[in-house]
Amino acid sequence: MKKITRRSMLKGSAVAAAALALSACGGSSSSSSSASSASAAASAAADGIGFPKNETITLAVPGKAGGGSDLAIRYYSEGLNRIYGLKTTVTNYDSNTVGHQTVANAKPDGTTLTLATSSLNIQYITGNATVNPMTDFTLIACLQDNGFSTLAVPANAPYDDFQGFIDYAKSHPNELNAGMPAAGANTFLFGKLCSVLGIELNKVECASESDRLTNLAGGFIDIGVVGLGNAQEYSKAGKLKVIGTVAGDGITIDQYPAELPENYKTLQEQGFKDCYMLVYHYLMGPAGMDETMVKQMNAAMEEVVNDPTVHDGIAGIGHIPGWHDLEESEELHQKEYDELVNIAKNLGMYVQG
């Protein structure tokens, strides 16, 4: 059963204060003995929450501090500590690959977990990593939707909406420059849009959002994905135009915690029903975790997600809070993985066949 609720967005200062309060020191927990692991599992099972209560739980972030996954996992960390009396520590890894591999190699006792995104799938599908998201991890819960990706174009672009962009792209194949990473979530997003809409864009490498903003403002790229906050700031300054957003299937802009203008409507809301992107966050642990423990952890996360502080914190960073039971979590994860495989094949980037 899926359960998603909405609350008002935290004010900017409150979000910043909360994020600061939730910051944690990096570091890894020491390896535990088999006896202590068994004891922790038994204690957690007795409490019905699955999470080990007698040991520190390392929450690995496959990315630098300050990113969406990092901010989200710190809200979950605080909620787990406050609601269930757990001890957690957040550890950041500059390399996604190293972070994912660390969790995959950890003991399956619930003391090392991560909040994974589509990058885990993409890295494996494209052959940039050997960690298999479908076999080397245990899926505990599908949580929040990643929210909205803003499609921005230069301020002087000869179109003012997404339909105008599509019309122009069709009459000028391979002439419009799309800024994106060499291989990443935005690469796959544009890959899907091109496939669904029958357009051809010229791929220009712009790995970071700051690069895309600079190149959009300078007119060096014709479209790029930027965050909602930067999109609104640069749009107000007359440095770019917003022609729409991309979100999960069925997501609408009224689900964003703050009011957004009409030009931020999702592509689905604008009539392009197949123009969406599944990007969830998944709580995962190493392969081989005890099934009872996993079921209890999944159930325990429902209370964490619906806690007002955690819920509003997740919404405050632009994500859409959510919790899914194990069955639905597995269905959503498989659906996202399969979609990314299809996109990779269309892009000529699939190497796992």
Automatic annotation (TrEMBL):
Q: Which Pfam families match?
A: TAT_signal, TctC
Q: Which UniProt keywords apply?
A: Signal
Q: Which CDD domains match?
A: PBP2_Bug_TTT
Indicate whether Signal appears among the record's keywords: yes
For the keyword Calcium, the answer is no
Span of the signal peptide: 1-35
Q: Which PANTHER family match?
A: BLR1237 PROTEIN, TRICARBOXYLATE-BINDING PROTEIN
* NCBIfam families named in the record: TAT_signal_seq (TIGR01409)
Query: What family is this?
Result: Belongs to the UPF0065 (bug) family.
Name of this protein: Tripartite tricarboxylate transporter substrate binding protein
Q: Which organism is it from?
A: Faecalibacterium langellae
The organism's taxonomic lineage, starting at the top: Bacteria, Bacillati, Bacillota, Clostridia, Eubacteriales
